[in-house]
Amino acid sequence: MIRRLTARLQSGTLWWGQCLLCRHDCERQPLICRQCRDELPQLERPCPQCAFPLAVEDAHCGQCQRQPPPWQRMQVLADFEPPYPRLIHDFKYHRRALNGRLLGQLLARRLEPPYPEVILPVPLHWWRQLRRGYNQATEIAHGLQQVLDIPVDTRTLRRLRATASQTHLNRRQRKRNLHGAFGARPMAYRHVALLDDVITTGTTMTELTRLLHRQGVSRVEVWAACRTLEH
Description:
Elements: H1 2-10, H2 34-39, H3 62-66, E1 73-79, H4 84-93, H5 97-108, E2 118-121, H6 126-132, H7 136-145, E3 157-159, H8 171-178, E4 182-184, E5 191-199, H9 203-214, E6 219-227
């Protein structure tokens, strides 16, 4: 009993065997009951580079054919539709750390090989992470790691300066806001996955992908729980 309680405290939030969505008991299926898991929306036939849903399997959308993103592949769990907005909002702003573990586990079961050498969570500035209590991308990475045995590196990428919140900025403003915001320590990786909670315009991932390519990384994947990318 003490060991289980300690593990729950270390996760950031106590979990008493209830589904994080419907609050029904689910001791045999950690964090989410079978019914809620089966009803979760998922992307079908996504574009391999931007995860835009398509009518044909393994096809590239017209936008990516005309202007491919700098990364080599994108894999996400779902579009930003219920119940994911509530899960992610509570996770980021109400210290529901277990929501991140759940999102990571769900994402892990959707990912397709070949897998990268390492997962690189998108870094937060130290001041914002101190206020929030954790980096949401890192919490998702730990949940993912419970399913897929892939190392998580939280030291290589750094947020060099505190930037304004991206939430209400358009694409051009986001690009200007993030210019020079990230740095990276020397690395020997060749295939990595950048991980975040939600992909909106892709500006953050574009900035980080180009930084990684300059560091010698040849293949960058973008992973996230949800996407809101519009063409």
